Amino acid sequence: MTQVVVTVMPKAGVLDPQGQAVAGALAQLGFGGVGEVRIGKRIELAIAGDDPAGQARAMCEKLLANALIEDYSVEVA
Amino acid sequence: MTRVAVVRFPGSLDHESAARAVEGLGAEAVEAWHAQPELPEGTDAVLIPGGFSYGDHLRCGAIASRAPVMDAVRRHAEGGGRVVGICNGFQVLCEAGLLPGALRRNATLSFVCRQMELEVADDATPWTSGRPAGDVISIPVKNNEGAWYGDPDAARVVLRYREDLLGSTDRVAGIASADGNVMGLMPHPEEACDPLLGSTDGRLVLRGLIG
Predict the structure, then answer these.
(1) How far is B24 from B121, CA to CA, in rounded Å?
(2) What pLDDT is attached to residue A77?
(3) How far, in Å, are B21, B101, B158 from residue B200 at the CA level?
(4) Cα(B183)–Cα(B89) distance, rounded to whole angstroms?
(5) A18 at the B interface (CB within 8 A)?
(6) Which candidate in A9, A68, A71 is best for mutational testing of the B interface (most B CBs within 10 A)?
């Protein structure tokens, strides 16, 4: 089994209300130096067989990410 | 009698009220189970109801859009058959690629449950019973991920919110496919079919399944 980490993030330009809410809360807590906050997902996969990164990319295309609103990256641990 | 298949996924919530609304319009409602690769025999039209299919995990509607029954819904739609997706059903149709765009978290970051006024934007689809563009109808919303995101010029916008509450691109509340036979909307027409609930405007939308 190969450990593969997929990161899915909202695309630049797509409103991220979760990130905005967290940015507001951080400012309220006195973290004045925070600009934009964006929140995404980390998905850990244990993959058997050849080309685990290629398999993970296929999974992103088919299910794990929505290309219209999200970008993804694949990293083999 | 028109036979309307009401699709049921694990986590569907509104299949019973949808079936009741469809029957109130004089049609027959039958259940289409998510794991079946075919629609029930004699299906004339399909309704995908609201709820939290597969627990809304990953993205709303994402897992349901890949369920076996959706291959049959796709064939039905491609053959010109009528399909309406309500709330989670709208999310499922977008995730399945049967309608353009995607649904995102409400700009309010909260679950919004209230009556909404909607403007007819396109009067040439079967989903507004011929009401002229600009007419206002009243149907409730109840959702957390109801902000449609997409290119309004690439979609056939059928209904728009009068008030920009959810953060939907161009105040989009409901869109149809280019041919008009597939419709998705976040408001719940099945909850606006009985005078006891304050509005019967939902019938104007659901009649599109029958006409």
Answers:
(1) 26
(2) 84
(3) 10, 28, 18
(4) 10
(5) yes
(6) A68
* B188 in active site: yes
Q: Which residue on chain A is closest to B62 by alpha carbon?
A: A63
Which of B58, B60, B165 is the mutation pick for testing A, counting most A CBs within 10 A? B58
* % chain A with pLDDT above 70: 100
Residue B174 is encoded by which pair of tokens? Answer: 């409901």
**Binary contact (A17, B62; C-beta < 8 A):** no
Of the candidates A15, A13, A39, the one whose C-alpha atom is nearest the C-alpha of residue A26 is A39
pLDDT of residue B113: 97
Residues in B closer than 8 angstroms to A13, CB to CB, are: none
**What ipTM was assigned to the predicted interfaces of this complex?**
0.85
Residue B110 at interface with chain A, using a CB cutoff of 8 Å: no
The tens digit of pLDDT for each residue in B172-195 reads 999 999 999 999 999 999 999 999
List B87, B95, B119, B145, catalytic entry:
B87
What mean pLDDT comes out for the span B129-135?
95
Decide the pairing of beta strands A70-76 and A41-47.
unpaired
pLDDT band of residue B156 (cuts 50, 70, 90) is very high
Identify any residues that bridge with A10 across adjacent strands, giving them in sequence order: A70
C-alpha B12/C-alpha B55 separation (Å) is 9
Please give the sequence-ordered ranges of beta strands (E in DSSP) within B34-135, or none if there are none. 45-48, 82-86, 102-104, 112-120
In the predicted model, is pLDDT for residue A17 greater than 90?
Answer: no
